[in-house]
Amino acid sequence: xxxxxxxxxxxxxxxxxxxxxxxxxxxxxxxxxxxxxxxxxxxxxxxxxxxxxxxxxxxxxxxxxxxxxxxxxxxxxxxxxxxxxxxxxxxxxxxxxxxxxxxxxxxxxxxxxxxxxxxxxxxxxxxxxxxxxxxxxxxxxxxxxxxxxxxxxxxxxxx
Length: 159
Hints:
The chain is an alpha/beta fold. The protein has helices at 13-21, 33-41, 57-60, 96-106, 119-127, 135-147, 150-158; strands at residues 8-10, 49-54, 67-70, 77-81, 87-92. The chain contains 7 helices and 5 strands, in the order βααβαβββαααα. It is 40% helix and 15% strand. It has one domain. Helix 4 (96-106) packs across helix 5 (119-127). A 5-stranded mixed beta sheet has the order 1-2-5-4-3, with helices on both faces. The protein is globular.
C-alpha cells in the first residue's frame, strides 16, 4: 500500500533525512517522541499514519499505549500499533546513529568513507538543523539503502 509522505512522522532531523533517502519525500518532522505521538493522536484513526522514533530512555514512558505487533529476530527494529487504529509506530533500536553504524558494519560499509570515523561525528550530523543539506550523510544513507540491510528493508516494508 502506498503511504503519502506527509503521513510519515519522523522524530528528528536524522530520522527525517533517513526516511527521505528511503524514497518518502516531505515527511512531517516532529521535534521529539512526544510530538510524534501528539501528531499521530490528532489524525483520524482509520487513516494510515506512521511515526518513526528512537528507542531511547525518553521513549519508554510514552510507548505504553501501543502494542507490539512485530519485532523481527536479529533486527534492531520494532513495530508497534495503536489498537483500533491504523497508526503504526516504528521504533529504531537503540537510537538512529548506532542502528545505522550497525547496519553499515553488517553490510561492509565503512562510515569513515563518508566522513564519520566515529559515532560522535555521525550523531552530530544527524542532530544538526542542516542535516537535509549534508550530502555526506545522504550518500552514506543511500549506500545503506542500496545494500539492502534486512532491518532497512523491514522498515521499508512496514511503511
